[in-house]
Write a structure and sequence with these properties.
The complex is a heterodimer of chains A (about 180) and B (about 100). Chain A is built from 9 helices and no strands. Chain A is mainly alpha-helical and about 180 residues long. The termini of chain A are far apart. Chain B contains 6 helices and no strands. In chain B, helix 5 packs across helix 6. Classes of the chains: A mainly alpha (about 180), B mainly alpha (about 100). Chains A and B meet through helix 2, helix 3, helix 6, helix 7 and helix 9 of A and helix 1, helix 2 and helix 3 of B.
Amino acid sequence: MVSAESSTSDEHLVEATIGGDDYAFAELTRRHKSRVFGVAARFARDASEIEDICQEVFVQAYFKLRQFRRDSPFEHWVMRITTFKCYDYLRKRRRDGPAISADVLLESGYEPSAPEAPSPHPDLERLHAAMAQLSPKERLIITLLELEERSVQDIASLTGWSAANVKVRAFRARATLRKLMENQK
Amino acid sequence: MNELTPQPGDDRLDALFAQARALRPDTSAAEYAFETRLMARLKETRPTDSIWAMVSWRMIPFFAICVMALMVWHEQVVQQTEAAEQLAYVENPNAFEAWNSFN
């Protein structure tokens, strides 16, 4: 069993996990969960949805660990899985629509206990509302580029799209977002 | 800010993005004991018959060698039977014909 020391390299922990040491994978998870949670929280706002995305990421990482090629750091590989899982989440959300509409809630007799407090950042709420209307690909690009401050090359590497493709998509996504924000005025 | 050519109206958008970046969501509560929950889920998700599946796959070369050995053995038995039949025919053709017609 690998001791969960911070000095142990990720590569060593990966080897240990493949060898059947689950404690090594728990240590890998502990090291990288903050980054994964941070990215997931940019896409999902509900805590249970964020938890679901992160669990999906690490479950996939665990079962596909043998496919991890050591040509890039483990963190980059996990972030790649995270990007795909967030994209899947956006697509699923777009396909399924909101989980339950306000009309259905009111018809079922639901009464909010207290009036919702006004948001301390109304402009940000408008930005999030506009971003929610973007297509999954547009939202993915905008989030990674503008909120996570990833470079075009980095996004290309994470998504598997070409750098030129990322630039074009980002340009269009910004234009769409600008239009959506203007319509909200 | 980013690597794209700025467009009119981007300043306001950039300001909003900067504001959103500064307000990084706090996920510390969700992160608490995440490893424990994950390992519990992995334990559940891991298929119980994975050992058998793994053993079966690893036994494939052994089974292939067994099949090939059986084929070689079968071929040898057929050849020996044919040789014995030919010998029997040469030594006593009448008896061989009678035996064949009886069977």
